[in-house]
């Protein structure tokens, strides 16, 4: 008889024959459902997976525009393949999922194309507000939160306080399902910041200690890889800086190893399982770093998963979706569906109660950030049926760039070239503009 770990906290006793059968089934399932990132695409991409909104490379276009094209293209692909459906919110209003994001109008009014700071966008359409699954909403939400968290971190450090970053990870294997692994990291991060040992450590550090954390997902040679980024806010200097770091590191290494092994997983690496770093510069912490891929700013490291790329053979969920759209490899779509279901209803960022008030941050929901209008001026209006054609042909990026570059005339050139109805001039305001 052999004891195996069926799921965290659930040991199962198997006979030898049953165990061999389970191993054969797991091996077959693993090869079918969890492909290696280095495996070749299964087929030439079908035409319906080719996206018209974005060129993969264009040396004449600035990086910010290329990134925006990429986000819009990813949303177009996700609208086609998403398995999440709309459901009532609080029994009254419809909750628009990714399938409706940027497509459905808020009312019967026309869709307005506006231009702000040389960038075009559509006003009058709904946003799904998904920080996990929508590349467009994620960019808005994470970008704004990066600014908020970066500014508050700068004020915190400039006031003579301490800020420490902690990264938590653990050993994992190909074939492990994402949902329980996500629970493992999320529950474990909560446990290490609520244990008796944590409360004692807080007293040693002066008593006023808070945290903010985010769980990030990548997929690589060993399957799904959830890990946690955490910021520890300490009022004052906490004493000697080196000693504070040692205390924080000792606590997290001991408690994290206890949690992971207690759930039936291997002991985390002493080198990589827990990583502790101090932020020393208030200026660096306060920068609104939202354009780099490295994620080195304090606020950025916590929130900008939409900008990150996986390391070595590891890929973020958005990279899995992008590679599916370029290759048509259905195995990548299976992984996207798994991530989509596992992320449903989960909060991307959690924190100590009252931390926002301590840092002087204004509370705002993800949906409010996604719905936030950028301002600017009206440049064109599209009837509902014309906007539906734009979305069906996946022309949002072309339309937005056209309205920013040449206004109404340029937009109608794009629409006419693609067999869509035409836009018209926006109505005059009281000021005649």
Number of helices: 14
Q: What is the C-alpha radius of gyration, as a whole number of Å?
A: 24 Å
Strand order of the largest sheet: 10-7-9-8-11
Gap from first CA to last CA: 81 Å
Report strand %. 15-25%
Helix content: 40-55%
- SSE-based structural type: alpha+beta
Average pLDDT metric? 80
Shape verdict: globular
| Strand elements, count | 12
Largest sheet: 5 strands, antiparallel
Low-confidence stretches: 1-55, 282-302
Q: State the order of secondary-structure elements, H for helix, E for strand.
A: EEHHEEEEHEHHEEHEHHHHEHHEHH
Layout of helices and strands:
Blueprint: E1 2-7, E2 10-14, H1 16-33, H2 63-81, E3 87-89, E4 93-95, E5 111-116, E6 119-123, H3 135-158, E7 162-168, H4 178-192, H5 196-204, E8 209-220, E9 223-234, H6 241-262, E10 274-279, H7 282-286, H8 298-303, H9 317-327, H10 330-343, E11 349-351, H11 355-359, H12 366-371, E12 377-382, H13 384-392, H14 396-417
Antiparallel strand pairs: 1-2, 3-4, 5-6, 5-12, 7-9, 7-10, 8-9, 8-11
Helix pairs in contact: 4-6, 9-10
Task: Describe this protein's structure.
This protein is of the alpha+beta class. Among the domains are: 2-33, no CATH class; 135-370, no CATH class. Helix content is 43%, strand content 17%. The protein has 14 helices and twelve strands. The chain has a five-stranded antiparallel beta sheet with strand order 10-7-9-8-11. Strand 8 and strand 9 form a beta hairpin. Helix 4 (178-192) crosses helix 6 (241-262) and helix 9 runs antiparallel to helix 10. It is globular and about 65 Å long.
């Amino acid at each position: 008889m052999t004891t195996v770990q069926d799921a965290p906290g659930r040991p199962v006793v198997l006979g030898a024959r049953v165990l061999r059968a389970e191993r054969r089934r797991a091996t077959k399932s693993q090869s079918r459902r969890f492909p290696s990132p280095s495996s070749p695409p299964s087929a030439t991409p079908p035409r319906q997976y080719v996206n018209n909104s974005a060129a993969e490379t264009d040396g004449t276009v600035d990086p910010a525009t290329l990134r925006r094209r990429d986000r819009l293209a990813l949303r177009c692909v996700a609208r086609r393949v998403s398995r999440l459906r709309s459901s009532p919110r609080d029994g009254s209003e419809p909750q628009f999922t990714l399938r409706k994001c940027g497509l459905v109008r808020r009312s019967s009014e026309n869709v307005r194309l506006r231009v702000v700071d040389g960038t075009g966008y559509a006003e009058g359409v709904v946003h799904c507000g998904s920080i996990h699954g929508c590349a467009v909403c994620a960019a808005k939400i994470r970008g704004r939160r990066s600014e908020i968290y970066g500014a508050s971190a700068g004020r915190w450090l400039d006031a003579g306080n301490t800020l420490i970053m902690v990264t938590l990870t653990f050993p994992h294997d190909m074939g492990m399902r994402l949902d329980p692994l996500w629970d493992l990291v999320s529950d474990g991060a909560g446990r290490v910041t609520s244990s008796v040992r944590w409360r004692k450590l807080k007293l040693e550090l002066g008593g006023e200690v808070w945290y903010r954390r985010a769980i990030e997902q990548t997929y690589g040679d060993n399957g799904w890889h959830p890990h946690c980024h955490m910021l520890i806010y300490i009022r004052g200097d906490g004493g000697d800086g080196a000693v504070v770091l040692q205390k924080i590191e000792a606590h997290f290494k001991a408690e994290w190893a206890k949690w992971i092994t207690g759930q039936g997983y291997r002991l985390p690496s002493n080198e990589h399982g827990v990583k502790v770093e101090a932020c020393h510069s208030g200026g660096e912490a306060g920068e609104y770093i939202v354009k780099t891929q490295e994620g080195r700013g304090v606020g950025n490291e916590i929130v900008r998963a939409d900008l990150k790329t996986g390391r070595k053979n590891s890929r973020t969920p958005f990279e899995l979706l992008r590679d599916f759209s370029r290759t048509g490899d259905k195995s990548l779509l299976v992984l996207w569906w798994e991530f989509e279901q596992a992320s449903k209803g989960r909060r991307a960022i959690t924190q100590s109660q009252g931390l926002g008030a301590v840092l002087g941050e204004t509370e705002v929901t993800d949906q409010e950030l996604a719905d936030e209008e950028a301002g600017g001026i009206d440049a064109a209006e599209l009837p509902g049926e014309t906007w539906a054609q734009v979305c069906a042909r996946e022309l949002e990026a072309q339309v937005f760039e056209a309205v920013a570059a040449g206004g109404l005339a340029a937009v109608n050139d794009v629409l006419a070239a693609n067999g869509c109805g035409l836009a018209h001039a926006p109505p005059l305001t009281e000021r005649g503009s």
